[in-house]
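ok, trying the design again with the full structure, not the truncated one.
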């Protein structure tokens, strides 16, 4: 690209002959060699191969655990679904769990990515086993692609029939499979990573042919057909097709990529409207990554702004202290976190994996410290905490339910989405520590590592952060070089508290929280930069402003370990829902609270007597009172135990009001029992049998400690005990939505009920008067009640009872 020359250009050029020019900064390892089309952006990430983690740390232990996990998987078993769908004989049996129940092959795609990332990060075994497996996978997938004849590589059961239908316009066929585009997206992403991250030319070849297959399958679909199909989760198909355009420069891939832009989700974001409540969270994040990728490639400021708005609203309004979002995989109302607080299915690791990828992209477009602040928080508190080091396994849900626990995957049994992204994470640890600026280097994260820009320039960063609040950067240069080091001043370091020394001498820097302190000079071999980052303990409420708070020291979320007993299923078996921590939940009125305000609380957090870094105790304000207070440790260090990360701020007055409220509830309950004619304990075998339960398509489960049942038809028979009039009372969960049904008593329709999710976080009971004519049908003191779905489902029913009329 031509640039305007400035008059002083010649002088600068002569200077440039004397000191190595910055243009050579990333020459040797420039990833742009892979691209025919690449956006010009103010910042650029270094290739993974340019960064190495140093020393024995939790990070290097996690990389080792990840390697062990990857080696425990058998490539031939992961490949089996691909061979089967290509009409070839599988060499081994497919794995079970999600690999044999419709999402067959998704793990194989993640495995390609994970191997590529680990190899590029220098984390292979000493004999190169991961690299060998990567080559083997590519060879086998090439066989599959050749056998298929149409370029396809995927394990979706019944692939040929499905994609033939889709190509012919039957886009509804995707609903009869388990998110097939999402699944195939993993093949695309794996091949892309094999090429872009691990430099495998074969990855490029297979990827481009797979891209041709995608172009063909979607070619004859109308925009309406495409948009309607995009309601089915499709991963980041727009991103990978845009990547193929970037690699080849052929616009047909860009055109297809844009067809995977989901307008129903994107258009409100462009209008700065957060309409995310109720949406499946991790369905959205990857498509926003694609939205930003295309926007960067074609320079579309509107779409870029929409992606940025999404990031803003999710990171600020929808994330808890550790950087995760969503409950039971869905975005809840941003002004009400109560469901998330109470649920065993807290934030999902995939969501944060994808939020970090989006953060990296937005940072390169607009290198602001706010992106790195979020990245650091989510990285240290969620990503690193989601892998078990002692017995390698990955976490799906991280509940914030006080005193609940987490479940880890096991290699032979578990093939969840979060296993797929979980095995990719450790290879990516070095991705965002540094970034290239036009005139220097950003230091985003404080992690012991070495950045080898080329054979003339490296930076070695040594630190035990977050266990110490200082980092040291040593310049390793063949010859002096002038450039700017952009040292992040984190949001959690107060104004004027960040200090920088070069070779022991203080350097004046101007920076405020959440910015970069710029140090520009002519650097020489061996120059050492020391950055002090004083940490403080602070209190952070849930974004809804409710009285539940987390404590952080610097960027590190602290949590109280609350016991290692009673953790059923904490190493998951192959059960479909084995990733959920289904053990008993501790009642919320039994967990400790703090009698303090946000301002008072930090004063009651003291160093733990053990003196261990980042270990604290909360004293004097804990109720119920416990001798010595309660212990707080970095959440990232707590595994295989129950924990409390959120605490309620309250006061003795509020507590006694709460007690009075509970007494009142007891009185109400007694009155209610006196008015009850008959009642069914839903979902329990004996009471349901006694009430002659019948149903169609029904399921039952637990929520908030209570059992539910839903279905297309549910029927019970109640005992009227000779009463002449009654009302039917039914209890629902106020957060259930999208369901409508008719209610019949004794053959008479008594109500039409719709559940819209308008009362989240609590149970609601609704009374329906029963007309006299319905009672006339009640023979032998029995009355049949029936719930028939008119939209999706009837229920969930939590309680059904016949009540004396309220008069
Ligand atoms: Zn997941």
């Amino acid at each position: 690209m031509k640039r305007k020359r400035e008059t002083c250009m010649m002088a600068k050029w002569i200077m440039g002959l004397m000191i190595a020019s910055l243009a050579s900064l990333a020459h040797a390892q420039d990833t742009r060699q892979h691209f025919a089309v690449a956006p010009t952006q103010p910042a650029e990430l270094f290739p993974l191969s340019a960064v190495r983690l140093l020393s024995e740390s939790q990070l290097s232990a996690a990389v080792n655990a990840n390697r062990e996990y990857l080696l425990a998987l058998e490539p031939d078993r992961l490949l089996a679904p691909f061979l089967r769908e290509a009409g070839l004989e599988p060499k081994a049996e497919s794995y079970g769990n999600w690999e044999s129940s419709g999402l067959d092959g998704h793990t194989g795609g993640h495995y390609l990515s994970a191997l590529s990332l680990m190899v590029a990060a220098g984390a292979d075994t000493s004999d190169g086993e991961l690299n060998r497996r990567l080559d083997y996978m590519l060879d086998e997938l090439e066989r599959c692609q050749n056998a298929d004849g149409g370029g396809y590589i995927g394990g979706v059961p019944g692939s040929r029939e499905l994609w033939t239908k889709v190509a012919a316009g039957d886009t509804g066929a995707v609903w009869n499979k388990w998110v097939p585009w999402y699944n195939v997206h993993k093949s695309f992403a794996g091949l892309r990573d094999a090429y872009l991250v691990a430099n495998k030319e074969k990855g490029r070849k297979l990827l481009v042919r797979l891209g041709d297959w995608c172009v063909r399958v979607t070619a004859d679909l109308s925009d309406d057909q495409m948009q309607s199909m995009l309601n089915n989760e499709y991963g980041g198909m727009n991103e990978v097709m845009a990547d193929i355009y970037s690699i080849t420069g052929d616009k047909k891939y860009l055109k297809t990529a844009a067809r995977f832009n989901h307008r129903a989700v994107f258009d409100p974001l462009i209008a700065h409207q957060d309409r995310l409540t109720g949406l499946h969270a991790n369905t959205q994040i990857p498509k926003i990554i694609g939205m930003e990728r295309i926007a960067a490639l074609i320079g579309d400021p509107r779409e870029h702004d929409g992606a940025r708005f999404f990031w803003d609203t999710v990171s600020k309004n929808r994330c808890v202290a550790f950087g995760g979002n969503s409950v039971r995989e869905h975005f809840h109302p941003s002004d009400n976190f109560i469901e998330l607080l109470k649920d065993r299915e807290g934030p999902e690791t995939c969501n944060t994996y994808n939020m970090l990828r989006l953060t990296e992209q937005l940072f390169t477009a607009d290198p602001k410290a706010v992106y790195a602040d979020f990245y650091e928080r989510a990285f240290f508190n969620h990503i690193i905490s989601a892998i078990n080091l002692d017995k390698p396994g990955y976490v799906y849900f991280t509940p914030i339910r006080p005193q609940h626990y987490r479940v880890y995957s096991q290699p032979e049994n578990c093939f969840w989405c979060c296993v797929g992204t979980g095995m990719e994470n450790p290879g990516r640890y070095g991705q965002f520590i540094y970034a290239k600026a036009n005139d220097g280097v950003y230091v985003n994260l404080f992690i012991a590592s070495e950045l080898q820009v080329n054979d003339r320039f490296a930076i070695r960063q040594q630190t035990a952060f977050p266990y110490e609040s200082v980092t040291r950067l040593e310049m390793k240069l063949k010859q002096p070089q002038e450039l700017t080091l952009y040292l992040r001043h984190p949001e959690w370091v107060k104004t004027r508290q960040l200090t920088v020394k070069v070779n022991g001498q203080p350097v004046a820097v101007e920076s405020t929280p959440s910015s970069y302190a710029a140090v520009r000079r002519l650097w020489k071999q061996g120059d050492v930069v020391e950055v002090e980052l004083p940490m403080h303990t602070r209190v952070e409420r849930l974004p809804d402003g409710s009285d539940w708070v987390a404590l952080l020291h610097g960027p590190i979320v602290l949590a109280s370990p609350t016991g290692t007993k009673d953790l059923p299923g904490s190493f998951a078996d192959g059960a479909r829902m084995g990733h959920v921590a289904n053990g008993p939940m501790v009642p919320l009125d039994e967990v400790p609270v703090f009698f303090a305000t946000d301002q008072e609380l930090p004063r009651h957090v003291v160093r733990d007597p053990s003196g261990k870094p980042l270990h604290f105790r909360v004293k004097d304000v804990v109720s119920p009172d416990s001798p010595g207070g309660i212990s707080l440790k970095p959440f990232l260090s707590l595994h295989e135990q129950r924990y409390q990360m959120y605490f309620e701020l309250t006061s003795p007055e509020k507590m006694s009001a709460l007690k009075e409220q509970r007494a009142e509830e007891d009185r109400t309950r007694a009155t209610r029992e006196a008015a009850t004619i008959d009642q069914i304990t839903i979902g329990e075998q004996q009471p349901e049998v006694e009430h002659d339960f019948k149903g169609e398509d029904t399921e039952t489960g637990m929520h908030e400690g209570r059992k539910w049942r839903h279905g297309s038809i549910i029927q019970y028979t109640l005992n009227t005990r000779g009463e002449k009039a009654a009302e039917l009372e039914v209890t629902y969960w106020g957060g259930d939505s999208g369901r409508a049904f008719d209610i019949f008593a004794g053959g008479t329709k008594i109500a039409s009920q719709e559940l819209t999710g308008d009362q989240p976080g609590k149970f609601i009971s609704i009374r329906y008067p029963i007309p006299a004519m319905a009672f006339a049908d009640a023979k032998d003191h029995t009355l049949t009640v029936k719930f028939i779905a008119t939209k999706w489902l009837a229920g969930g029913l939590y309680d059904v009872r016949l009540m004396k009329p309220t008069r």
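Keeping the full-length input from now on. The pocket of zinc ion is lined by residues 348-350, 396, 417-418 (CB under 6 Å).
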